[in-house]
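Per-residue structure
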Amino acid sequence: MSVTVPSAAETDEAGKVAATTPVTGAALPRTRSRWRGAGLVSFVLLPGAVFAVFIGVWYAVSDGVLNDQQRFMLPPPHEVVRIGFLDWSNFKTMMSALRLTCEVTFSGLAISIVIGVAVAVAMSQARWIENSLYPWAVVIQTVPILALTPVLSFFFGFALTSRIIVCVIIAFFPIVSNTLFGLQSVDRGMHELFSLHHPSRLTRLWKLQLPAALPSMFTGFRNAAGLSVIGAIVGEFFFKQGEPGLGTNLSVFTSRLEGERLWATTLTASLLGVAVFVFFGWLARRVVGRWYQPKRG
């Protein structure tokens, strides 16, 4: 079997042709423009199209399906905006309630993060601790809040404290489960490499497990962020004494059949949940985005 070796002249000529071919300069701008076009479609046009379909269905149901006596259940969007947001008195009431709901949301979320991460770290250090605590974390997640209402009201009253406790109960489990998953998912080879230097348990936790668990932890934080808004609304819905929040207003507007203000309050609560979720997504990119790149198909 013979092998043909190119001559020096042929190699030099091929190098000249390759050097004069404008591959990189032509492909790079084209690739960037394609990515920008794909980003525009993915993050702007597609959500905008879904929003337009949603508004169209809303108008179709409000104007075409419901009669005049039923329309209070789903008033048209322009009436919701006009009465719920453009009326200064209603808007002022909405912002006052939003302020209190934000206070309950962020207080409950902060407490959930501290307790949830501490419990997950404790469970990651010993199997018997995980077997002792994890089933009760599941029980806390699944117990109906309505069943806890009399107990909470007896010990903590009907004001702000009970609302925050409800928020903590609802937002607690995603933080525990995701943090524990991240702490237990560290590569075995990294553990063996650390073992060569005989580190303490605290050093292994601080320098290996916690940094590796940050992506999972922030996933839990984002999930808990949305649930904390729900917890605040639920707590305000049940514990109505004191200054009213968005949940209290939802209950009041429902009993009064004020559909426009009810839907305006619902949209405000949804936007609050989206804002908190987006904030933790941004925070995750700032904290772990420089060194962690998720695998994409």
Notes: The radius of gyration is 28 Å.
